[in-house]
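User: My advisor, Dr. K., asked me to get a structural model of this assembly before our group meeting. I'm new to this, so sorry if the format is off. These are the inputs:
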Amino acid sequence: MGDPITLIGKWLENLLYSWGLMPGVVSLIMAVIGVVVIASAVLVLDILLVWVERKVVARFQDRLGPNRVGPFGIIQPIADVIKLLIKEDILPIGADKIVYNLAPIMALGTVLLLWAVLPLSSTVYGTNLNVGVLYIVALGAISTLGIIMAGWASNNKYALLGAFRTVAQMVSYEVPLVIALLVPVILARSMGLTDIVEAQSIWFVFIAPIPALIVLITSIAELGRAPFDLIEAESEIVAGFHIEYTGMKFGLFYAGELLHALTVGGIIATLFLGGWRGPGAETYPILGIFYFFIKALFLYWVIMWIKYSLPRIRIDHMLNFNWKFLTPLSLVILIVMAIVDKIVPKTSMLVYSLVMLFVNVVVGWLTLQLLRRNAKSARMRVAEPKPVARPEPSPTAATSQTSSSSS
Amino acid sequence: MSELTTIVENTLETRFPEVVVRDERKGYEGFIIQAEKLVEVVTKLRDDFGYDYLSSVTGVDYLPEGKMEVVYHLYKSTGGSALVLKAQTPREVASVPSLVPVYPGAELQEREAWDLYGIHFEGHPDLRRILMWEGFHGHPMRKDWQEAYYEEDSKPYKSRWPDGEVWRSEDKNTFHKNVDYPAGFDPETWVPDGDASLYAGLGRVVKPGNGGGLGTEQVVVNMGPQHPSTHGVFRMVVTLDGETITALKPVMGYLHRNHEKIGERNTFLQNMPFTDRLDYLSSMSNNFGYALAVEKLMGVKPPERAEYLRVIMAEFTRISNHIWAIGFLLNDLGAYFTPMLYAVEERELILDIFEAVSGSRMMCNYFRFGGVARDLPEGVYEKIRKLVYDRLPRKIDELDLYLTNNEILRSRGEGVGILTPDQAIAYSASGPLLRASGVPYDIRRADPYSIYERFDFDVAVRYHGDIYDRYMIRLDEVRQSLRILQQAVRDMPEGPIQEGKPQYQVRVPPGEAYGRVEGPKGELGYYVISNGKPNPWRYHVRAPSFVNLTPLEIMCVGNKVADSVAILGSIDIVLGETDR
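Assistant: The format is fine. Below is the predicted structure of the whole assembly, which you can bring to the meeting.
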């Protein structure tokens, strides 16, 4: 017991063998079934996420959120999907047809592909790729391509602005992301996600809090969610890259964004929060799936919390923040942690973790000191205090009313 | 009229004999200036007498006399009452020199006068139509211009109840009979040249790459008219070099309904509910300005209790407008509705009070000439007390706590969209926009009206002139408004709320009057001319949302495209007032 999924898999495999199929065909069928099961499970979850997102943001904003269709409005996303499906499908004049239609598929497809390497529990995973981290980074680059394609093919200036913001943002935030992702690789001595989870008897977030934070921030930027939602920037470039998309093509972008957010939650949970690990997960792998989704949804909630609390950052600030802060910081922390990893013996995990944590705290403290020293100086005043405008300018009137001001 | 103004007037007449003559018509004030010498006289006034603030420019059509008049209201940025100047010109070839070289703030207002009256402003840098569309025939505010389905010059139309039932002229009159096309114009085949002249004015340049590299080209982007952050159907045509704005032109008029023409057809009292529709977020303030202008003409003063009620309602309007503005500024900065929804909650409570006194939450129609429409119903006074003393101060502090020190708000707002005090005055900016640039000019203090002199409050000023200061000053002003409200609620006497008998048809003696109030968005002025008939001869609205857009370009150029929407949000416009 405790592992019904493997049990079902084994039973199905034996059934296929008993029909006298060749081993190659059997493994192919099993792989196809696995892909179909994971992909559809994830997409069904995606529909639910629409409801979760709308309900959570409503609570952040002091509202009720959807509450009319079904209990607590839970059937609302189904209604949304029906609406999207029956909407008119528009192809703008001058759009590049193939690229235009391919872009939403790429946006959702790349997110689905990420689930191939995410270990849901000790026994349930798509594949244990030995370069899992590299795979994640590579897919991140392809999802960027989907957005650029959408922005370019739409033949719209807002979309084009969104597209070149995407280039600036995604490409630059990939640098600190990749560097910070190397830290769990060093700690686990493997690039395979399953191995990284196995190595986390102590969650990496306690050993390497700064890289965890960098990965969270850069992942939000890769997602294009607030405060880094410049690529769709509703109040500036209307909807950015997906401005011309209607109906289900827009729906694919939307679903892709939500699912991407959850997937990023899952990736961070895997890399830093111990993935499926939790009490009893070793013996009952089915619990691991539960733990994994709890952690992923918690991080998804954090991402939403940030999105619905903060205003948008401006493009030059965004680039400054990346190149002048995140990239140097991630490089420093990587070098420091690599050196400490070589010096401190890994015989006692507790001592090793404490030293690593200490190093992180020191680097974090130094960073804060540095930031404080280089804090922006006060703004320049453009005006000097003047007496308040009065009908009869007399000395008594001018001084009796002083202007209320502080800067 | 103050002593100082008289000195100026005497000097003017002696210095420019025959150029400047006193306006001797009954009920009129100010001076009539020979059009050719206008720039010279005005430059003198600005440089030597300190009349550095051009508040209002508008045209008046005196059809019976066969002449046009351009009316200027000048003020000192140090306070005081208006200096009214007029330039007269024949109707057929109406032309006066443009004041844009002296007061850049005249730009949009002169364009409006050209558009609506056909008065040509010699030397204006960009004299195009502004509110009407490019293909429009004629100038609609001229007294001899008649709209489609024209019936009579003034309401109430006699035809509306011929047999005791209402009918509409458009039901009986086909469209084509009543439309006057220019010779050779066919609406079916007409292709608008539209934006060619607009884009030509933007000056797009192709920059050659340095040293044979890639050449870059600037791109023209239309922000609006359909855009979530232009607060309505407003359009900013921007030229972008990458993300940086190199040129910007505001385009408006999509919501134009010729408010002033309708206002001249209406009777005086019919205009009161019509002013609600200008800045539909602050209808009480709109009522206030119009009531002041007409009361000046009529020579009536509202009773004490009505004055207090007016002040209470006007200050509530200011609070509700400012928290709305703050909420939407944050929205423009990309905060996705969260701060907005928190801010709007308080506004709802204020609207409850408006609903209780006037019967409507937004289109209040509460003021009357010489009073207000209704007294407070039972229980509303207590509600106001609780709101003013407890709930609102708490909630404003909460808003302050959550937003003011937000790192992203600071980095987006500080040092962005700077307007220096000199620019602000020259470009006729008013209200929070002017005061955030360090000019302590508040009409409630500078040219007091109603009973504001009795209240103890400070004029909020900030000195950096950027988006962040324009955010901060709104918080400051809300706090000052609360102070006024607390005093007004404490001191409000019992008594009548209307001077004399309430009447449908008021008798307004001939003359002109300019009533201005410190509206939430800036100086809201009504220029009303009566010729003794039941309808105003001229009804002009000096809309702060409109005039405050004049410095939009100088604030935006050099900043990022993302800043342009934030700068627009920090000006705080409402398109119902901008386009009128």
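One thing worth pointing out at the meeting: Confidence is low (pLDDT under 50) at residues 394-407 of chain A.

User: Perfect, thanks a lot.
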